[in-house]
Sequence to fold (132 residues):
Amino acid sequence: MISKTEYLTFNTKTTRTFVNITHEVGNIVEKSGIKEGLCLVNAMHITASVFINDNESGLHKDYDIWLEKLAPHDPTEQYKHNETGEDNADAHMKRQIMGREVLVAITNGRLDFGPWEQIFYGEFDGQRKKRY
Fold:
């Protein structure tokens, strides 16, 4: 079995954002020399996610609005987790909804997607350095 591990680091400008990482992941797969197999991409932080969907700004805004309705940041006092001195309980919940990882087939040395599928890093507690 051939494998390759590589880490990327993000320091987002906003607390919540979605970053298209398809190109970076595709480059890693191509450099790996793996022709057939699977590519696992996972968020290595508990308040971030990785997911596959369409690269459409309206959809991303809809996600942001929907997630904030499901797990609003304010008031921060509504969450037991925040009694520990944190203020990011909502970010943990948003990550749980959006998912931790994706698995993509590698065919002929390239990521094998369906139409419009792309990989995104979802950040829910940003403005500090994180790796995935």
